[in-house]
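Internal tracking record. Fields below are filled automatically when a chain is submitted to the structure queue. Please do not edit lines marked as system-generated. If the sequence contains nonstandard residues, flag them in the REMARKS field before resubmitting.
Queue: standard
Priority: normal
Entity type: single polypeptide chain
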Amino acid sequence: MDDYIGLDVSMKETAVSIRRDGKRVWRGKCPSDPRLIADLIRKRAPSVTRVMFETGTLSVWFYHSLRTEGLPAICIDARHAKAALDMAANKTDANDADGLAHLAEVGFFREVRVKGFDSMLTRTLVAARTRLVRICTELSNQIRGLMKTFGLVVPAGKGSTFEKNVRSLLVDQDELAAIVLPMLEAWRSLRIRATELGRHLVAGARQNQACHILMSIPGVGAITATSFATAIEDPDNFKKSRSVGAWLGLTTRRYQSGEVDYDGHISRRGDRHVRGLLFEAATVILTRSSAESGLRRWGLKLRERVGFKRAAVAVARKLAVIMHAMLKTGTFFDRSVGAAA
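SYSTEM-GENERATED OUTPUT FOLLOWS
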């Protein structure tokens, strides 16, 4: 007899439901610790076939930990699970666990690829550096706004130039300096930490062959290359390079019903951060890059027909396809090759 387990994971407790032969045989709660849950499953369901849970903040930890415990863990998209779990009359953790166990039993699900710890560690580095840079920008803008109120306009400049300009304007402003200088010191400290993380990121990208290949594309830097490579992980995860554009939400959505059939905006599904980086890279290719390539020429012609924003999205989608193909073949970017529509 096969046992099917559904887990509704939360921060403190996890609801557990076990089904066997089309019936629920046990359900309860357990602390959200994969080792304790594994012990419970081995005790209550000796013939476990599937252990199913939804994507969430703890899904990476749960998946790899349960796999290490020898359990057949399966992670499914929370949006797909919601369509089935909404059929329950009452929304409770126990009912959600029952629904997940039922999905595991009937096989009505699509498994999500869970990233490895190494990829998540690199993505955490990128996210931490990005957050520090944004906080630095917000602090510098706040300092400019506060000083402008008192007629002290900070000249344009970044980094040490910005700090020098602020300190020079506060020479005879003792009361205002007592307020602004602590913010300036916090800005300076955050900037140093962001720079350190940035150097760590660049050093890792230079030592990584996949990033080295991707950075041969004009407009693609260390952050974009690292984020894309860690999101894809293994190029063989996608049978076709064209699927990457849809996976990142860069293809248009379609609605067809009866006589109605139209394409809408891009789906914006998948990794939002990587999608934004690809759009930035496409913008650089269309506006600031001086390196001629078939991709740039194709994008400029498209811009004349459909406008800048749509052309940038199309170039971003094409970038995703090209970058995956480069990773799969291990070849560098060829500027002489034209880009097909």
